[in-house]
């Protein structure tokens, strides 16, 4: 049994905030942001995570040609759901009318879509379910302090989705499908990128722990990314007995153009094999990989048999890479 991606979809909000807009709010400039990150603008939602997730999911279902009643599993990768409960996946289920589906959210920040894709793959390969919808949706705009120039310039909102189906063909995971993967976590370094969502308080506590905005040690995250991403990609290619030259596209989490260029250099690969859309959208966390995958798919750039490596990294710390044969 193997799992294949049979459809993709994405949604970004209409509202565009440019670097010049931010320069009116904090002491920064378009030149600084472009030089250090490659980001030129970002989209900001006024409707929230569930709405974006539903819009991306509907496009993916349409692209896959799968009726919602045939969906058996929905996993939403998000760290910024509208509610603590119900989970975002249940809200997506209700809107789609996917009555049969089992629904849960998965929290792994910017690695969330990759972790969710691998989770759904394993469920499908086990035979537990035949179809799955995997969504990455995040509203980072509500987690950043818009007066902190070191973080507010980096992030945007959006959602992307992929529909998966299992196939009986035992060779399919090699011929076509979601193949080998590697994932990792290091909670001991979690402090370099954090955001507490709710206050910890009760009448029984003397001191409450307040919620707050995102805090980030940018340089530490940068160093972590440029070291870990090439290593995890090489690990997954080794498992699959492939070389980087066999890969058509490396679809990396869209955090910073310099991180992606550094990974390409370390792997001795042309940056043209590392598509990017962070200039328009910034870092959309769990949404960045599926939004990019959908853009590439809809441009008709993917042919059956093309090999892609998807790579995510982010808060936790968490990271991973997955081989997809289209
Ligand atoms: N505009 C102008 N100046 C700024 C800005 C800004 N927006 N932000 C910081 N500066 C200043 C700093 O105050 C500092 O000034 P100083 O030298 O007088 O002290 C100077 O610019 C350099 O600051 P650094 O932090 O050293 O800048 P750096 O080159 O490291 O770039 C950045 C910062 C862009 C955040 C970089 O470290 C980075 O991209 N790190 C990775 C962050 C990331 O990708 N996070 C998310 C990944 S995980 C996830 O997706 C959730």
Quick rundown:
The protein has 326 residues and is an alpha/beta fold. The chain has 11 helices and 13 strands.
Helix and strand arrangement:
Elements: E1 2-11, E2 16-18, H1 19-23, H2 30-37, E3 41-43, H3 49-64, E4 73-77, H4 88-96, E5 102-106, H5 112-126, E6 131-139, H6 149-152, E7 157-167, H7 172-175, E8 177-185, E9 193-194, E10 215-216, H8 218-239, E11 249-252, H9 257-266, H10 278-281, H11 288-298, E12 307-314, E13 318-325
Helix pairs in contact: 3-4, 8-9
The structure holds acetyl coenzyme *A (ACO).
The site of acetyl coenzyme *A has 23 residues, from helix 2, helix 6 and helix 8.
How would you describe the overall organization of this protein?
It is a single chain. With 326 residues, this protein is of the alpha/beta class. Helix content is 33%, strand content 24%. The protein is built from eleven helices and 13 strands. The chain has helices at residues 19-23, 30-37, 49-64, 88-96, 112-126, 149-152, 172-175, 218-239, 257-266, 278-281, 288-298; strands at residues 2-11, 16-18, 41-43, 73-77, 102-106, 131-139, 157-167, 177-185, 193-194, 215-216, 249-252, 307-314, 318-325. The strands form four sheets. Strands 1-7-6-4-5 form a five-stranded mixed beta sheet, with helices on both faces. A four-stranded mixed beta sheet has the order 8-13-12-11, with helices on both faces. A two-stranded antiparallel sheet has the order 2-3. A hairpin with a 3-residue loop joins strand 12 and strand 13 (318-325). The two termini are 16 Å apart. It binds acetyl coenzyme *A. Acetyl coenzyme *A is lined by residues 28, 32-33, 36-37, 109-110, 149-150, 153-154, 193, 216, 218-219, 221-222, 255-256, 283, 285, 314-315. Residues 254-258 are annotated as: ACP-binding. It comes from Lientehia hominis. Belongs to the thiolase-like superfamily. FabH family. Its EC number is 2.3.1.180.
